Amino acid sequence: MMKSTTTSTLFSERLKHYDKREKWSKMGKIVPFLFTSFALITVLFSFFLLFSPIPFKVTSKQGLTSVQNLHELQGNFPKTDHFEEVENCDLFTGHWIPELKGSVYTNSSCTTIPDSKNCFKHGRQDVDFVNWRWKPENCELPMFDSMAFMEMVRGKKMAFIGDSVARNHIESLLCLLSQEEIPLEIYKDTEDRFKKWYFPNHDFTLMILWTKFLIVGEERMVNGTGTSAFDLQLDKVENSWADFLPELDYAIISDGHWFFRVMYLHQGNSLTGCVYCNEPNITKHDISFAVRMAFRTAFDHINACKNCNGLVTLVRTFAPAHFENGFWNTGGYCNRTSPLSKEELDLGVFEWEMRNIQVEEMERAREIGKKQGKKFGVVDVTRAMLMRPDGHPGSHWGNKWMKGYNDCVHWCMPGPVDHWSHFLMAVMRKELGIFS
Ligand SMILES: *[C@@H]1O[C@H](CO)[C@@H](O)[C@H](O)[C@H]1NC(C)=O
Ligand SMILES: *[C@@H]1O[C@H](CO)[C@@H](O)[C@H](O)[C@H]1NC(C)=O
Ligand SMILES: *[C@@H]1O[C@H](CO)[C@@H](O)[C@H](O)[C@H]1NC(C)=O
Ligand SMILES: *[C@@H]1O[C@H](CO)[C@@H](O)[C@H](O)[C@H]1NC(C)=O
């Protein structure tokens, strides 16, 4: 499913080059890695994030056949009877409990599941990973209700802004929403990085705006070949997404996977630092710094936006990858079949730090935004997803060219990724003051 032979050739060349590098045991140990080990990470994320296939066609009406069953199912999901309880409850601290009703959609009721996330189609045998429900410690998380969601967003425009994991979220949301209405695909660019759908019955517009870093980031090229090192302009948002802000009601921002690489950091016209570089005269920063600055610049831009009245910005926090016993090209895999328990959860990992930075920057922006009429919130999926090493495609992502390699970055559909929309809807309801 590679986009072209050029990219695959390029990739296999890099692969040969980096294959002999030292082996690593775990994603979570990225931070202290030395510069010399670094290129490997870069290749990993370049690969998964750039070339993750995205065949997408919202045309079929087959999905409608199961709508009735669906509403029956949804009726059985726990509803919130206790308004105050949800209002004051921390939805994001909890654990996974068995939910025998399984998923709201299947790979036949949702016709738009991208091939690379259709894990059952590609031979995934264990099915239990769809049979879990998130249970916040002190309340119930209301499950996604496509009909109610559509009413909430009637006449609105919502964009998902971020990398291919943001795309994974919108793909999941489309499966949930297509149970209510099949959208028209009204725009797509040649690389499927910018797409727009319209739901005529609800006058709802949904779009994906693709960005690696939120801020301007250009890959350093040598003789026409990418070096995997990037120049980041810390004080400039990428206009390809930011230009859409004035027309949006909801911006769902997420990002992070592209930052694990050599980066040269610029402010104004000066080079002010770098990440994972070994030039003697440049101030060294860690990934956290670059991530923080990227989010801060994006949020400052939103707060300064004159024509963005009433915009609600929600940060979907970092979603961890789960490679075990190696990296993607050193035999790393993610073939677990059940969630982690609370006791097994490790918040000492770098992914949690990424999440904390994103939440801190959101809170900073929220304070500033109060004066500008801008609203900010968080869809804080990190803790729940840290506990779902069983939610990734692993070897079941149908990529013939990359046989033997595992995708432990993206998420199977159906699967725990569908919970991001449960969380999203709950947060939006809180935002609107609706608690039922
Ligand atoms: C759905 O998954 C089943 C395996 O559970 C597979 O046989 C079938 O081909 C898949 N259908 C589609 C439309 O992907
Ligand atoms: C780039 O191309 C020039 C001319 O072909 C060559 O001299 C140089 O070594 C190349 N640089 C790298 C880094 O490959
Ligand atoms: C580093 O700084 C020193 C002293 O200012 C200078 O002589 C040297 O050329 C610089 N090196 C680089 C790589 O810029
Ligand atoms: C997961 O994969 C590894 C490596 O292929 C294998 O050794 C292990 O038995 C697998 N575990 C399960 C639960 O399938």
Question: What does this molecule look like?
Answer:
The structure is a single chain. With 436 residues, the protein is α/β, with parallel strands linked by helices. The model is unreliable at 1-47 and 50-84 (pLDDT under 50). The protein has a single domain (94-432), classed as SGNH hydrolase (Rossmann fold, 3-Layer(aba) Sandwich), CATH 3.40.50. It has helices spanning 5-19, 38-51, 67-76, 83-88, 146-152, 164-177, 239-242, 287-304, 350-372, 382-386, 419-432; strands at 94-98, 132-136, 157-162, 184-188, 194-199, 204-210, 215-222, 225-237, 250-253, 263-267, 270-275, 284-285, 312-316, 375-379. Helix 1 packs antiparallel against helix 2 and helix 8 runs parallel beside helix 9 (350-372). The chain has 11 helices and 14 strands. The structure holds 2-acetamido-2-deoxy-beta-D-glucopyranose (4 copies). The site of one 2-acetamido-2-deoxy-beta-D-glucopyranose has 2 residues, from loops. Residues 222-223 line the site of one 2-acetamido-2-deoxy-beta-D-glucopyranose (NAG).
